[in-house]
Every structure is written in structure tokens, then in C-alpha cells.
Amino acid sequence: MYALGFNPLSGQLPTIAALLASPLPIQGSGTFTARLTSTETNGACSTVTTAGTFTGLFRAQFAGWGTRSVKFNPADDARYREDH
What we know:
The structure is a single chain. By secondary structure, this protein is an all-beta fold. Helix content is 0%, strand content 70%. It has strands at 9-12, 15-20, 26-42, 45-62, 66-72, 77-83. Strands 1, 2, 3, 4, 5 and 6 form a six-stranded antiparallel sheet that branches.
């Protein structure tokens, strides 16, 4: 599933929320919670990678297949990355 054309994320680390609302074909919400952050520098650029957990539920509506859902649990590992 992809959400193109806008940024569904809000907040700042250590907690980032994701919200996909109506009338989008993908709807739902979730929260990323950071556990461990590392920074890698290459010249003037840096990459911040954060490991943590993501909890939430998203639903997508497909023609011919109906609604499909994906649920993320606190036990699932997640990663968030920012390039500067």
C-alpha cells in the first residue's frame, strides 16, 4: 500500500503519528514510538535512523477484492529514517 502526494506523518521523535483519512482509498492511523536512534554522516549529509515500534490499523478498498486490512502490533519492529 502506498500513500502518494502528501505527507501523512505528524509529530516529532520519539513519537510520530500517521493518519490517512477519508476520502483516500487507504484509511487508518498508527503511531511510531522510538527506542534507539543512530546518526550516520557522509560529508555534509547525515542520515538519522530510528528503531522502535509501530501500532495501528490501515484499510484499503480494492475493486473486486473488497476491503483488506493490515494491523501493526507493539511487538512488531519498525524503522524510521530521515535524510538531511
